[in-house]
Automatic annotation (TrEMBL), chain A:
Calcium listed as a keyword: yes
SMART domains reported for this sequence: EFh
Species in which this protein is naturally found: Cyprinus carpio (Common carp)
Top-level taxonomic group: Eukaryota
Domain EF-hand stretches: 100-135, 145-180
Listed InterPro entries: CIBP, EF-hand-dom_pair, EF_Hand_1_Ca_BS, EF_hand_dom
Keywords: Calcium, Integrin, Magnesium, Metal-binding, Repeat
Molecular function (Gene Ontology), one example: calcium ion binding
Signal peptide (from-to): none
Keyword Plastid: no
UniProt-listed Pfam families: EF-hand_7
Family matches, as CDD domains: EFh
Biological-process GO terms, alphabetical: integrin-mediated signaling pathway
UniProt protein name: Calcium and integrin-binding protein 1
Automatic annotation (TrEMBL), chain B:
Chain spans, region Disordered: 1-43, 737-761
One annotated GO molecular function: mechanosensitive monoatomic ion channel activity
Protein name according to UniProt: Transmembrane channel-like protein
Stretches that traverse the bilayer: 185-206, 260-278, 352-373, 393-414, 426-446, 569-590, 618-639, 675-699
Compositionally biased spans, kind Basic residues: 18-27
Keywords for the protein's UniProt record, in alphabetical order: Membrane, Transmembrane, Transmembrane helix
Family stated for the protein in its record: Belongs to the TMC family.
Domain TMC: 498-613
Amino acid sequence: MGGTSSKLPKDLLSEYQELTFLTKQEILMAHKIFSELQDRENGPYSSRVSMEKVLTLPELKSNPFRKRICHVFSTSDMKDGSLSFEDFLDLLSAFSDSATLEIKSHYAFRIFDFDDDGTLDARDLEKLVNSLTGETDDTRLTAEEMRQLISNILEESDIDKDGTVNLSEFQHVISRSPDFVSSFKIVL
Amino acid sequence: AASEDGEDEDEDDEPPKGRRAANKKKAAQADEEDSDDDIPQRRCNEAVNHLMFCLSGDDSKSDEEEESMSEGEMAKLMEEVEEKKKLIANIRNKPWRMRRRLKVLKEAQQFVDKFEGALGKGKGRKLYAYKVMMMKKWIKFQRDFENFRTSCIPWERKIKEVESHFGSSVASYFIFLRWMYGMNLVLFSLTFGLVVIPEVLMGLPYGSIPRKTVPRDEQATAMDYSVLMDFNGYCKYSVLFYGYYNNQRTIGLLKFRLPLSYLLVGIGTFGYSLMVVIRTMAKNADVGGGDGEDNEFTFAWKMFTSWDYLIGNAETADNKYASITTSFKESIVDEQENQKDENIHLRRFLRVLANFLITCTLGGSGYLIYFVVKRSQEFANMDNLSWYEKNELEIIMSLLGLVGPMLFETIAELEEYHPRIALKWQLGRIFALFLGNLYTFLLALFDEVNSKLEEEDSIKNASIWFVKEYYANYSANNPNDTGTPPPIDPADIIRGPCWETTVGIEFVKLTISDIQVTYLTILIGDFLRALIVRFLNYCWCWDLEAGWPSYGEFDISGNVLGLVFNQGMIWMGAFYAPGLLGINVLRLLTSMYYQCWAVMACNVPHERVFKASKSNNFYMGLLLLILFLSLLPVVYTIMSLPPSFDCGPFSGKERMFDVIMETIDLDLPAFMGTLFGYVANPGLIIPAVLLMVLAIYYLNSVSEAYKNANMELKKKMQMVSILCVQVHNNCPGACDSSARPQGTWTSTWPTRARQGSRATP
């Protein structure tokens, strides 16, 4: 590791343990990996890691929502998806094994909300389906299938029939699902 | 007070007071303006009133009450300090940014520190401060213990690697395997510590009494490899099996009661396993979500929950994309296909035919096993057997376990069920096959046990007569020696048939052959196949990798069922062969490494999506069933069969559980004996059983009532949401234009229970 890597001070470590769902070992591992990402940054030392560097992590590399994940957890003013160490910890905490269903569904909603308007409308759902079916043409759905799929989804989840899925409806749907908590997990 | 500025858009936690007060004010305003109204306004009022009426059922605490005068300033302060403490404990549940959480945490901690000192003034100050310090230390200790516990869990990295390549369903098998390893380790340490070690350390050594010595006529071959492989020779007369243990009531300086310990550990094994399995089932049911309503949200779930975030490998990700697409297309088509049903008669006929064929197969396999067991009994009396004849029973059983499922799968092609239903049928049939085989094996074994029991009487007489004759001969041959004759060498005494050790040996042999077959299958079926496909591909006419046979997929259900049944056999055999648990622990350990290597080196990820979570409780349920089924034979033998007269810790008693009666009579104070006498009275037991039946009935009806209440609440929620839409549509000013429905009805809806505590402003 380079000379800029530092050890995590003890009081910060115990504070992070209070504030996140991560154990001590996980926080230390996250610190180590984050420092390595920082060392590989070109340019002057900054406390943030750019989105491209974060996306080189093996856990995120194959994920179709990787860019959205970075945007959702980033607190940078420039809205460029760069992550500070605390953002990184937030990310790992929300995706950890012990995080509650409410936290996970809250962040899942924000990840799926491609246009950041607070609801999932038909355009968001369409982009969601396209991310899930891959990049190549032979795996995409036809326009007719897409329309049918989106109308089925809205019929199931849109309780107030306003044509969009808001956070509470989303959480209601997700809370009945047995797979969500176990699949919405990233471990370093 | 903690400031909740709206700097973060992810805050869905609007101060309830403000929102509700605003609503009430607006409703009041709407009422005031009723006089000069127009129809839309009246409609608006009605909608709002209707809504408020609907919500009034759960209107427990209005905000005015929260501000009402409390008893004294001290109590109010104490309340606030408690709330702040709760906030600190629950702060990680809030979906806020780290910055904000840090700020809130610091403020809350300062508040608590400042006022906790103030509260401590007066009489109870020292005690209070002491209590606070102990609480802090306790929390820190708990956290450290949790950290330590998670770091002790073995094989995390390995399983994570498998998970990232193959998805969570394949990894769930390895997690199950690890859980079984943990349970077996505990059982092994129980048995080892409380039964084997005392006998080895404090009991009589090898060779001192007949049951611990190899008989004279077997001594020549006792060390041969083939004899040891059969678990005869020195293996048979060792701590591994029941027959070695002595029936002395207490042994050693500590007066350790070995027979009692043996019986209690045997029963305790089942009790512990039962507790652990049920606890895990309850935990799974809690997290996963129980039964019913598979079809309620199919599309939404496919959309929102089908991606597995643990996938870290590009090839697996591609496979996942393909399977998600297929699954979407299938469900879209499925909706329309429910009506179509071509040629229902042919399909019904084929299904009946398939079931008939499968029943025939099951019956045939049961009969085959019975026949082979009978033959092995005949072989036992013959000499010079080939290796095949000696191990015929185990080989046939393992082969049936291999061939049966494949046969079922081919026959099931006739049925044309939906893949998920077909999988359930397949699992059910394999389960029936294994169960049938196991019970036929047991029945045949019981035949053998009964025949041994019949022999026992005659051998008992023969052995007593032999001893008498020995002494008579000795006196006759040495008339000068008037002292007591030297004792007979233990190797020479005639032995009884010792049926318990025989049963133990059978189970051990079965387990060993099961292990061998499993490992060989992986080696040949996966590894050799992968080698052939990889290297022969260069000089073959068609593409071996893409077409047939290609690389194997990991058979999750087959492996899990194999594990479950293996555990059943261990439970059955552990009472007669305490060493079996050690063998199983070794087996699970090597299985973990071997199968992890095999799956990473020779298998490819599944093409079809496989839902792991719902199956988890299904496999636990199977394990529970097997536990009960393996409990039955053991309990039956303990209760009804007489133990052998010359081997094992219960020799000389009428029944095995007599040792408990003896302990109660001799070791416990007198009143406990009479107490147990009363408790065992049928007049007490029958009412107790009736009481339990009544309790089950009561709990059942309570759960029915809860289900109904659930349905009612769901209907109410739907009605409220529709009313909200009406309010939203009819009253242009009633709701804030920037606050969507999530701001209005959800924050007043009883999500109080969901969202822990709120910071009081």
